[in-house]
Design brief:
With about 325 residues, the protein is mainly beta. About 5% of the residues lie in helices and about 40% in strands. The longest helix is centred in the N-terminal third of the chain and has 15 residues, at about 10-25.
Length: about 325
């Protein structure tokens, strides 16, 4: 909403010029509206559904626009401020971003003097000092209410207070431009991210057994199956979103794991472990090549996934000597 006096006809530019000159004589700025109660009402939705976004990205956005075109003509050195306050959220330290009760979700308030802007470029608290006499300073024409992803884990369901007052101006009473949020809270609806995922508990111990070096050299070694479950929480029951996995360990390439203490006294050498999933894909040792796990069921408030793999001894090159042939690796869940 706004209350702006328009003077129509050819006389309008002269009237604006004369008003601006007289105002500049008494005040540091003149405004193209002679009324001090120009305002914009903000109506954020009562609930929002978040979309996929990287950490630091926008999960959901609401924009209110007004093309009223309020601007000021100012002397050099006038201090403008854009402030938001009174809605009780703690700052994250990022420009215009506040903490919310939803894990991993922040609220960002911003604006732009460009009506068609796709992104905000002014974040309260914001300050600008005019650099020359007669400088034009435009009031915001687009106001952004953004929900920002703060971390990997993203929660659900909490109500976020969005009732706030905002102000843009330079200190004179008639210069105030106010922004009023007329929605008390917005509920964050998460149908995209898990709150957390974790493995099934104890470490997976794959018993490789004894193997003759002659079998390793000929390629006829016994293949050992292994599997483990992953439990994920934080979305509605039955949601089978992708959960990927990759591995960390002493690996020269995907699908191959070197032995622990290779070449040391009592340990085998020239031998490694081949690792594939149940589809025959080499297990990746880099996040960029993460592979999917299989969703199998809902269990209480958790979604359960399963990973199945196969391991066998292989030659890795160099002198081949018998001995202990143990190895370890860590699996890393990727549900970003």
């Amino acid at each position: 909403m706004r209350n702006i006096l328009f003077i129509l006809g050819l006389i309008y530019p002269m009237m604006l010029f004369l008003y601006g000159q007289s105002a500049l004589a008494a005040d540091p700025c003149s405004k193209n509206s002679t009324h001090g109660n120009w305002y914009m009402n903000i109506f954020p939705p009562s609930s929002i559904k978040i979309s996929a976004a990287p950490v630091g990205g926008v999960l959901s956005r609401y924009v209110e626009r007004d093309d009223g075109g309020v601007f000021f003509v100012c002397r050099k050195g006038v201090v403008f401020n854009f402030k938001i306050g009174g809605f009780g959220l703690e700052s994250t330290g990022r420009p215009g971003v506040y903490k919310t009760a939803v894990k991993g979700v922040g609220l960002r308030l911003g604006a732009s003097t460009n009506y068609s802007a796709a992104e905000p470029d002014i974040f309260p608290p914001w300050q600008y000092i005019t650099k020359k006499d007669g400088e034009l300073v435009y009031a915001p024409k687009a106001f952004f209410v953004d929900f920002i992803r703060l971390e990997s884990e993203v929660g659900v369901g909490a109500e976020v207070p969005i009732k706030f007052p905002g102000r843009f101006g330079y200190g004179m009473e008639y210069s105030d431009i106010t922004y009023n949020s007329l929605v008390s809270t917005t509920k964050v609806v998460n149908g995209v991210y898990f709150t957390s995922c974790k493995g099934g508990g104890a470490a997976v111990n794959v018993q490789m057994g004894k193997e003759a070096i002659s079998n390793v050299k000929s390629g006829f070694t016994n293949e050992k199956n292994f599997n483990f479950n992953v439990s994920c929480t934080g979305v509605k029951s039955g949601s089978s979103f992708p959960v990927k996995i990759y591995f960390e360990g002493n690996s020269p390439e995907d699908g191959v794991l070197r032995l622990s203490g290779e070449g040391q006294s009592g340990n085998a050498s020239g031998i490694g472990i081949s690792l594939v999933n149940n589809q025959g894909e080499k297990l990746p040792f880099d996040r960029k090549r993460s592979i999917k796990t299989d969703w199998i069921r809902t269990e209480g408030n958790s979604e359960v996934y399963k990973f199945s793999g196969k391991a066998k001894y292989i030659l890795t090159g160099g002198a081949t000597n018998p001995g202990q042939a143990n190895a370890t690796m860590t699996y890393v869940l990727d549900y970003d």
